[in-house]
């Protein structure tokens, strides 16, 4: 299967023209970096869904399973929502599907019988183990064009970009 063609990326000149057209005093390179980052992020999100569908999962379902595996024990749905950065309703939807497949189980909290605790089942742990080799190989392939130093710099840049996300979401 041949790779999908990449959509054309906006250029620095296009950003300059657009900024001039609006009569703004903005840095075209900053705008271009942000626009390109959002476009690549959208493509990466789509590719991620294709990737995880190979294993009968979605990105969200994988992240939830991996979070439970990393935690080593049970977590409440609200703890899962916080660690995944999603709403409690989103976690409930993910859990419903994962529980139907026998990959997670919900039980009563030992500390508070009213609260629920979610745990990874043996079947869920096996799903993660079965997909690990291919999954990690493909992740390495995603960044194969970057040197060790470039990956280190990229991680630092991602942290700084992550800190700037509030510029898009704050009132």
UniProtKB/TrEMBL annotation:
Protein known as: Transcriptional regulator YetL
InterPro entries for the chain: ArsR-like_HTH (IPR011991), HTH_MarR-typ (IPR000835), MarR/SlyA-like (IPR039422), Tscrpt_reg_MarR-type_CS (IPR023187), WH-like_DNA-bd_sf (IPR036388), WH_DNA-bd_sf (IPR036390)
PANTHER family: HTH-TYPE TRANSCRIPTIONAL REPRESSOR YETL, TRANSCRIPTIONAL REGULATOR, MARR FAMILY
Domain HTH marR-type: residue ranges: 30-163
Organism of origin: Catenulispora subtropica
A matching Pfam family: MarR_2
Keywords: DNA-binding, Transcription, Transcription regulation
